[in-house]
Amino acid sequence: MSGAKNAALPILCAALLADGEHRFRNVPALRDVATMGALLETMGLSVAQDGSVLDITSRPVNEPVAPYELVKKMRASVLVLGPLVARYGEATVSLPGGCAIGARPIDQHLKGLEAMGAKVDLDHGYVHVKVPRGRLTGAEVVLDMPTVTGTENLMSAAVLAEGRTTLVNAAREPEIEELARVLNKMGANVTGAGTDVIVIEGREGLEPVDHAIMADRIEAGTYMVAAAATKGNVFLDGVTFDHLEAVAAKMRQAGCAVEREGEGVRVAAEGDLRAVNIKTAPHPGFPTDMQAQLMVLMAMAKGQSVIEETIFENRFMHVPELNRMGADISVHGRTATVKGVDSLQGAQVMATDLRASASLVIAGLLAQGETEVLRVYHIDRGYEHIEEKLAGLGAHIERVPGASA
Ligand code: EPU
After folding, report:
1. Residue 171 CA, closest ligand 1 atom number
2. Measured from the CB, is residue 35 less than 6 Å from ligand 1?
3. Catalytic site residue 13?
4. Is the CB of 151 inside a 6 Å radius of any atom of ligand 1?
5. Which of 193, 272, 314, 361 has its CA 20 to 30 A from that of 60?
6. What is the whole-number distance in angstroms between the Cα of residue 95 and the centre of ligand 1?
7. Among 2, 30, 101, 104, which is best to mutate for testing ligand 1, by the most ligand atoms less than 8 A from CB?
8. How far apart are CA 71 and CA 92, in angstroms?
9. For residue 259, which phi and psi values (nearest 5 degrees)?
């Protein structure tokens, strides 16, 4: 398994916090990582990726600005906000706006920075954040919901603030713990990451870091489902099983064998799978980033399952595409009802977002005949070498250059 995209993105932004030579290992070669690298380069940092090693030379930025052209490509660009405000006392970041899976505001990120002494103005689609006294001040911030990138932004801001910051109702995702590990290696004092209360004692300055990024739990979960859906028996190497408890529990309930094996996980399935109900929730609940993939498993299970999406309001765009392949899924608001069918048929389908595109690839693997997934660039945002990895397991899959309109 590759390094985790959603851990790498905030960690690369942390390089803004300390000048000097940073080295990040086990970094996946993905479109989103390249976009983040380009954003850091526009600010004057040097970024070079060679395979899974990514070096950043950090120096004072020319302008603490994240322009619309990059933020519109990737919402996670907003992760530069916390480090920039902490280090330079100001930042200007294009508002990300809505995206295919929902409205996704950043009000909680801004609320936290305001509590720490920043002034926030909106102007022509940009948010300007300025700290009148120059340096942020530690504060207690109670988040309305456990936002992942919001927690990361506020953690990365608080490490250089004066005094103690307490984040209450913080997100508990493993990527937050990983960011805390990196910040602490840089000399920060972050405790409680992985729980819903994170305490940060601010420091005057931090040091550059050398760090190997943890494995991608969503990539692993996706291959776990692909293995089970195709009735395979697959060992995934380099998986932190503890990060996948909720996914493993649902797959077992559906009748799959999922076992921790050394540094990885083995997944096997044979015969009919059972329908199970799924409700997405913040970690350690069932991840929204695995909802589309599990839906494919349910599309061919025995019986009817109900899948409820509680995190994003518009994350069922894979449903019409799966139905074109012969699935029987109906959506009412945030709930999808999936009636298992005996088989799916290959078809031309359109990828709409990263995880939806992964679900269409899995559907293509188990459908009869050929499936053509269009707009495959969505997959390249988050799945490193997906066609090589699947072909290595016996899948017939190829990238057709120029066909993905
Ligand atoms: N929200 C607000 N206000 C805020 C922040 C969030 O209302 O200020 C809402 C969102 O609209 C959403 C909920 O809170 O309804 C949770 O969103 P969150 O902020 O946690 O999502 P995110 O940080 O923007 C990260 C991942 C997503 C993943 C979600 C949920 C990164 C770079 N992105 O997004 O990953 O789905 O957490 O786990 O870490 C993906 O990799 O495909 C992906 C979309």
Report:
1. 20
2. no
3. no
4. no
5. 193
6. 15
7. 104
8. 12
9. -130, 135
| CB of 178 closer than 8 Å to CB of 36 | no
Asked whether 8 lines ligand 1 (CB < 6 A), one says no
As a whole number of angstroms, the distance between CA 17 and CA 3 comes to 22
In which region does residue 97 sit, left (phi positive, over 0), alpha (psi from -120 to 50) or beta (all else)? left
Nearest CA residue ID for atom 16, ligand 1: 147
Q: In one letter, which amino acid is 208?
A: P
CA angle 333-320-405, nearest 5°?
A: 125
Half-sphere exposure of 100 (CA within 13 A, CB side): 13
Retrieve residue 154's tokens: 């506020």
* Helix (H) and strand (E) counts in the chain: 14, 21
125: exposed, middle or buried (Cβ count in 10 Å: 0-12, 13-18, 19+): exposed
Contact 273, 231 (CB under 8 A): no
Burial bucket for residue 375 (CB in 10 Å: 0-12, 13-18, 19+):
middle
Q: Which residue intervals of 186-285 are DSSP H helices? A: 217-229, 245-253
Contact 11 CB / ligand 1 (< 6 Å): no
Q: Which residues contact 30 (CB under 8 A, 6 or more apart)?
A: 5, 380, 381, 382, 383, 384
Contacts 24+ apart (CB under 8 A), 189-197: 189/159, 190/155, 190/159, 193/155, 195/170, 196/146, 196/168, 196/169, 196/170, 196/172, 197/166, 197/167, 197/168, 197/170
Which structure tokens are listed for 81? 């906000």
Per-residue pLDDT of the chain (405 residues; tens, 9 = 90+): 999 999 999 999 999 999 999 999 999 999 999 999 999 999 999 999 999 999 999 999 999 999 999 999 999 999 999 999 999 999 999 988 667 777 789 999 999 999 999 999 999 899 999 999 999 999 999 999 999 999 999 999 999 999 999 999 999 999 999 999 999 999 999 999 999 999 999 999 999 999 999 999 999 999 999 999 999 999 999 999 999 999 999 999 999 999 999 999 999 999 899 999 999 999 999 999 999 999 999 999 999 999 999 999 889 999 999 999 999 999 999 999 999 999 999 999 999 999 999 999 999 999 999 999 999 999 999 999 999 999 999 999 999 987 655
